[in-house]
TrEMBL record:
<dbReference type="GO" id="GO:0005737">
    <property type="term" value="C:cytoplasm"/>
</dbReference>
<feature type="active site">
    <location>
        <position position="212"/>
    </location>
</feature>
<feature type="active site">
    <location>
        <position position="246"/>
    </location>
</feature>
<dbReference type="GO" id="GO:0006081">
    <property type="term" value="P:aldehyde metabolic process"/>
</dbReference>
<dbReference type="InterPro" id="IPR012394">
    <property type="entry name" value="Aldehyde_DH_NAD(P)"/>
</dbReference>
<dbReference type="InterPro" id="IPR015590">
    <property type="entry name" value="Aldehyde_DH_dom"/>
</dbReference>
<keyword id="KW-0560">Oxidoreductase</keyword>
<dbReference type="InterPro" id="IPR016160">
    <property type="entry name" value="Ald_DH_CS_CYS"/>
</dbReference>
<dbReference type="InterPro" id="IPR029510">
    <property type="entry name" value="Ald_DH_CS_GLU"/>
</dbReference>
<dbReference type="InterPro" id="IPR016161">
    <property type="entry name" value="Ald_DH/histidinol_DH"/>
</dbReference>
<keyword id="KW-0520">NAD</keyword>
<protein>
    <recommendedName>
        <fullName>Aldehyde dehydrogenase</fullName>
    </recommendedName>
</protein>
<dbReference type="InterPro" id="IPR016163">
    <property type="entry name" value="Ald_DH_C"/>
</dbReference>
<dbReference type="InterPro" id="IPR016162">
    <property type="entry name" value="Ald_DH_N"/>
</dbReference>
<comment type="similarity">
    <text>Belongs to the aldehyde dehydrogenase family.</text>
</comment>
<feature type="domain" description="Aldehyde dehydrogenase">
    <location>
        <begin position="12"/>
        <end position="436"/>
    </location>
</feature>
<dbReference type="GO" id="GO:0004029">
    <property type="term" value="F:aldehyde dehydrogenase (NAD+) activity"/>
</dbReference>
Length: 468
């Protein structure tokens, strides 16, 4: 689209935003249910699109995208009436004679910028919250997954008028033109580097932003963990979607005494999941591919550099540029000088390090920017509490991985370099809403505070301070 066409869409939505903001609970729920029905009746089409874009297994599309979306819509419809209802507040002594409450109102024109790794789910999930809040929206899917972007556009065109929700396809130049417009809120999912550009553009209009980013999410395994079960769950979480998940474990810190058993269990789990017949992982129908050659070369470069600096490949390492394939790879002997320990890998390479004392693991975690997720595997209550109290992360899971994103009861989001703002359930609804504080006087007056001021009034005020 040309810049002038983008402006026209924006202006049409701006003219309509107050109408949509005044929509009722039932009207918003009806839109969400139409969206849910479309997703349910076009499941195969969604799976075909993600398969064409980067060979994503159907099961992973259903688990990582459709299941999350359908659950989010159902949960939102169930609770939306309560979220929209004015929230009565306690009246403090200083405000005697008044009543106060919070009314959530739509922010208005919003822009949703989605990434390529979950191209349907991460475009539609924030849209669910925007619709629930009563906003109008422009959705910009990633150009790296064109089939999925086309599906999202077609779905939105069949459900919503353009002055309410519109999908705009295009490359980075289109994104830059969109960011020039004075949106009321921007919801961006992607890398910290691009997020900085989004924040700069938003600052020009004092636009609020939600940033869902990533970072190096650690997975800590202590000596009390169930080694076999933990290894299996980490393998699943890491290599799901070929490691292209913002909350995937990016490196493992395992207690030295269980390291050998853990590595054996990791190798066995990789074999069991992706090469049970011994025909090679490349033949597996359960293993996705890297989205494009650029990202393939980036990950291969990280791997080559690590090996050149002394890291050892203890499992995997095979690759095919033609099919954008890198086998599930475990690295040991890594150091902070290597890019695999400096950058988010976002691919099927997992560095594994050992520690002797838990403080060493915590020092390693705290030496890096705050991660989007932290995973702890332990059956020791004291160890669990110690790690949670001495680290900071967007979310923290104990003996569990990945499922925080699909739990609408939990706020999902990062902190610092891993993001700002929250999604999921009521937290997503509030992200697209302005919490407007309203106060009404029911009786009494403040006339006794009006000038001219007397010494007697000042004396009363000073005494009153003691009761606040």
């Amino acid at each position: 689209m040309s810049p002038s066409e983008l402006v026209q869409i924006f202006q049409k939505q701006k003219a309509n935003k107050m109408v949509i903001a005044r929509s009722t609970t039932e009207q918003r729920k009806e839109k969400l249910l139409r969206l849910k029905q479309y997703l349910l009746t076009h499941t195969d089409e969604i799976c075909e699109a993600t398969m064409e874009d980067f060979s994503k297994p159907m099961a992973e599309t259903v688990i990582g995208e459709l299941l999350v979306l359908v659950n989010e819509i159902s949960y939102t419809c169930k609770n939306l009436k309560r979220w929209m209802k004015p929230q009565r507040l306690v009246t403090p002594l200083a405000a005697m004679g008044t009543s106060s409450f919070i009314q959530y109102e739509a922010k208005g024109n919003v822009l949703i910028m989605a990434p390529w790794n979950y191209p349907v789910g991460l475009a539609v999930k924030p849209l669910i919250s925007a619709i629930a809040a009563g906003c109008v929206a422009i959705v910009k899917p990633s150009e790296m997954t064109p089939k999925s972007a086309r599906f999202v556009r077609k779905m939105v065109e069949r459900i919503f008028p353009a002055d309410e929700v519109m999908v705009v396809e295009g490359d980075a130049e289109v994104a830059r033109e969109l960011l020039k417009l004075p949106f009321d809120h921007i919801f961006f999912t992607g890398s910290p580097a691009t997020a900085k550009e989004v924040m700069k553009a938003a600052a020009e209009h004092l636009t609020s932003v939600t940033l869902e980013l990533g970072g190096k999410s650690p997975s800590v395994v202590d000596e009390t963990a169930d080694v076999a079960k933990t290894a299996e769950s980490i393998v699943w979480a890491k290599f799901f979607n070929n490691g292209q998940t913002c909350i995937a474990p990016d490196y493992v810190l395992v207690q030295e005494s269980v390291r050998e058993d853990f590595m054996k269990a990791m190798k066995a789990s990789i074999q069991k999941m992706y090469d049970p017949d011994g025909q090679g992982t490349e033949r597996s129908s359960s293993y996705a591919r890297i989205v494009n050659l650029k990202h393939f070369n980036r990950i291969a470069g990280y791997l080559d550099e690590a090996v050149s600096l002394g890291a050892q490949i203890v499992s995997g390492g095979s690759r095919s540029e033609e099919s954008r394939f890198i086998s599930p790879t475990l690295l040991t002997g890594v150091s902070d000088q290597m890019k695999v320990m400096q950058e988010e890998i976002f691919g099927p390479v997992l560095p594994v390090m050992s520690y002797r004392k838990l403080d060493e693991a915590i020092t390693c975690i705290n030496s890096k920017p705050k991660p989007l997720a932290l995973y702890l595997h332990s059956r020791n209550r004291a160890n669990t509490d110690y790690v949670l109290q001495n680290t900071s992360s967007g979310n923290a899971l104990v003996n569990e991985l990945l499922t925080q994103f699909g739990n609408p009861e939990l706020p999902f989001g990062g902190v610092g370099n891993s993001g700002s703002g929250k999604a999921n359930g009521v937290y997503g609804f509030r992200e697209f809403s302005n919490a407007k504080g309203i106060m009404k006087r029911r009786f009494g007056t403040l006339k006794f505070l009006y000038p001219p001021y007397s010494e007697k009034l000042v004396g009363w005020l000073k005494k009153g301070l003691r009761y606040l």
